[in-house]
Amino acid sequence: MTDKQRNAPARPKTRHSSGVTHVNEPHHDNFTVVGNHLAQHPELSLVAIGLALHIQSLPEGTPIGIKTLAAKFPEGEIRIAAALRELEEHGYLARPRERLQSGQVTTRTISFNKPRLAVAAAAPVPVPAPVPVPEPEPAARPKAPAPPRAAADLLAGLRAHDSRLLLTERDVHRLAPAVTEWLERGVPPTAVTRTLTTDLPQDPIKHPAAFLEHRLTSRLPPHLPAPAPDSVRHRPSPLHTCDGCERAFRAPHPGRCRDCRVSSVAVA
Question: What pTM, to 2 d.p., does this model score?
Fold first, then answer.
């Protein structure tokens, strides 16, 4: 009988006979904390999970357009665009569209390390639709009131921009009619949020509800003037940002531009 080899490497100790075995070492720098709600999400694809992890690891202000991501990874623009839409649907990403003073429509990207609950302040309506042609009636029709839940969500989401703007539920219900007044006057939710969160004082805000109430009252804009019928009779379709290539295009509804629709059919 031969002797046992004493120099043979020992097997790693493990509690399981099958499955994954973790060898974990602590990270002291250059790492990103990701929740298991994302890493083990039961509905997101692996492409979407990996893309969310990559976006959360990037420094603030890094461009993450579809073409930029497609240039870095082998998946291509169509798969990356689909993964971005998955992250939007599950609350890990928001891409609100805003109109600049020059008239150009741009897309702003917001990444959430936890699925967001209140989306009104972070993901507003895309681009305001053009004012419709008023009907010739003796008395103007009353405007439909804005949904009170949108105003409440906008106020509740202000703390995401500055923790000093944390409001109680009672304060949210008290200030919601003032925000609704802004929305009924044609002000987009992004503009209301910008008014309430920019140029904040450096000192602590002891009474955030009183501070916001003063801004909502003192900076309330006037109603939009009714346009003349001739000026809007031949108004073109509104500008939208393409979900595929993020270029601006005119169409009655948001979606993809003509080039991206043709490319999708060709790939299929």
Answer: 0.40
